[in-house]
Specification:
Layout lengths: L2 E5 L4 H12 L3 E6 L13 E4 L5 H10 L4 E4 L6 H6 L1 H21 L4 E4 L1
Parallel strand pairs: 1-2, 1-4, 2-3, 4-5
């Protein structure tokens, strides 16, 4: 079975994905800052409370959990908020995604799914 990191895994889509993968027997680690997600939504694997923009934390998770796949759901999605504060959306959805991809490349993660 795979060792999978799910970012944003305490949110709706992430938690449902984790449910299916956990029931299939995969080893899961969820990384979520809980700004929109819920601790109680993480029913499978470990929850690490933190931010995908923290490259040291992401590197640590990838190494310590021997992650071979990342499913990236940690994004800002509220359209009116994105219009009101486009730079924070750019930072979260573009820059932090770039950072997590860099961590994955550095740590030889084989699979990356970006939703």
């Amino acid at each position: 079975m795979s060792n999978i990191l799910i970012t944003g895994g305490a949110g709706y889509i992430g938690s449902h994905t984790a449910k299916k993968l956990g029931r299939a027997g995969h080893n899961l680690t969820t990384l979520d800052n809980l700004s929109k997600g819920f601790r109680q939504a993480v029913l499978h694997g470990n929850l690490v409370e933190g931010d995908v923009g923290d490259m040291d934390l992401v590197d640590k998770i990838l190494v310590n959990e021997n992650i071979d796949s990342v499913i990236h759901f940690a994004a800002s999605t509220i359209v009116p908020d994105s219009v009101a504060d486009p730079l924070s959306y750019y930072w979260n959805n573009t820059s932090k995604t770039r950072n997590i991809i860099e961590c994955c490349v550095r740590n030889k993660v084989r699979n990356f799914i970006f939703s």
